[in-house]
Every structure is written in structure tokens, then in C-alpha cells.
Amino acid sequence: MPQRLILVAKVKSPHLGSTLRAALPPFLDRGWIVTGEPAMAEAWALAGLAPARLDLDQDLGASNPVADLCLVLGGDGTLLHAARRVGMRGTPILGINLGSLGFLTAHPVSEAASTVQAFLAGTLVADRRPTLEVELWRGKRLLAQQTVLNDAVVAKGALARIMDMHLRVGDQDAGPIKADGLIVATPTGSTAYALSAGGPILHPSLEAFVIAPICPHTLTLRPSVVPASQPISITLEEAEDAHLTLDGQIGHQLLPGDEVRLRQARTRITLLQRPGLDFFALLQQKLHWGDR
């Protein structure tokens, strides 16, 4: 049976065509079946690849057996999209960075061809990342449920007043919170929005979550790290124009009384990395540690 590749890409990237030409031929030469969203068709044709070799599917092969690989060509936002659409099914993800930062899509575009060859040679390392299951409840009604790789954010709109929330961790009352919002992040998400809110960087192997307030009314309210085994509950007491945002890509409007429940999900996202690209080397590379 042919091996299957799911292709997820940032279609507006000026580097997409050249990256497709560098990364895809080794798979096509080996008879892999490649599936991508319909928006990929134009870039695929411009790259000079045979249109018949790309299976266009808006559902990215959801009705087929689990694919052997998801190749992401883009930035971290593209990879988060792929994680939700494909990675949650158990397909490992290989990210090639077409953007500028790229904590998750850690392999540079200049090394696209060699990264693909490393995958085919079996020399990449599987990095399994914990995820966060998020539920939105309004009274006894479940309005939304989603598993995320990075974070869940409860925040107010641009012109709204400060929010009143109530936080519980496990069976303990963490008290009322007045702030512009609250971030709950996985170790993977600790280098995203939570970091800009003053949160700590967690090693991806940790079984823990970051709870980081956004512009708290009390300056002594600081980000905290809690065990992943403890469920988290955020109840909105008083707010206007409030929203729940998941991985920065899915949004839900919130009303006073709504409760956001969070717990560690059973699902893990598998990222494929080069053996020499350890976490601290990545931090030094992306955050320019040691530079003057």
C-alpha cells in the first residue's frame, strides 16, 4: 500500500513554490500519495509538479487511514492549523519554516531538501507534545470542545472594561481575578502569548501548564505553573465583549456566567526534529540568547 503524505502550507508565502520543488520530488519519486487542501493547487502547478499527483481534499484525508506524515510548509500558525486538522489523528508532523520565528516549524527553508532526506532516512527524532482539552459551558450546556497544542485565552475586547473572573485549580479556589484576560498554556505554548505576558518558559517534556494573567489589576498577581494532572476552571463573573480564543485561531464569544474548563488531553502531537536541534539550542537560536 502506498504511503500517504498530508501537505499543509502557507499558500501566500513567496517561498512556497521553491520549497515545494525542493521538498516534494523525493516523496513523489517513491510513489507517496500526497493530499492537500484545494488552495494548494495553484502553488503546486506553479512549482512545476504534476497536477495529477496532488489529491485535493478540503478535509485533508480525514476519511482515509491515518497518514504516514504531515509536511508543514509555513510558520507556527500553519503548524497549529495542521496539528488541529491532522496531528490530533496521530499523524507525525514535520515542519519547515517559511516564516521568521518558528519555534514549532524549526527547520529552516534553506534546509528543506536535506530535512526531507533525513526523514526518509529515518534519522529524525519524535518529540511528543502534550495538549490541552478545552470546554466552554453555559449553564448545563456544552457550547464548544476543542483540543489545542498551544493555549486557551480568555480576554476582553479592545474597548471593554477590565474582566472579573474566578479561577479554580483542581479542588482549590485560586480566588477572584481582575485582569484584561487569562492565558492557560501548555509547555509548547509557553513560548507564545504566555511568554509575552511575562510567563516562564517550560521545557516541552514537563507535565504542567502555565496560568498567566494579562495586564492584571493587582501587580502582585503573577504567572504560575500548575501540575497538568489538576483540572482548571475559569468562570466569567462580569465582562463585556469577552472572548475565548484557542491556539489563536478559533474564537468563541463569552457571556457572564460562562465557564471554561481545561484539563490535559490524552492526545499527544508528534513533532519530528533533527537530533542536534535540542530545546535550549532552539531557544538560543530563536530568542538570540547570548547576543549583545
From TrEMBL:
Active site: D76 (proton acceptor)
Gene Ontology molecular-function annotations: kinase activity
Subcellular location: Cytoplasm
Principal subcellular localisation of the protein: cytoplasm
Sequence positions that bind NAD(+): 76-77, 81, 150-151, 161, 178, 180, 191-196, 249
Pfam families, per database record: NAD_kinase, NAD_kinase_C
Needed cofactors: a divalent metal cation
Keyword ATP-binding: yes
EC number: 2.7.1.23
Keywords annotated in UniProt: ATP-binding, Cytoplasm, Kinase, NAD, NADP, Nucleotide-binding, Transferase
EC main group: transferase
Function: Involved in the regulation of the intracellular balance of NAD and NADP, and is a key enzyme in the biosynthesis of NADP. Catalyzes specifically the phosphorylation on 2'-hydroxyl of the adenosine moiety of NAD to yield NADP.
Entry protein name: NAD kinase
Provenance organism: Geothrix edaphica
Gene that produces this protein: nadK
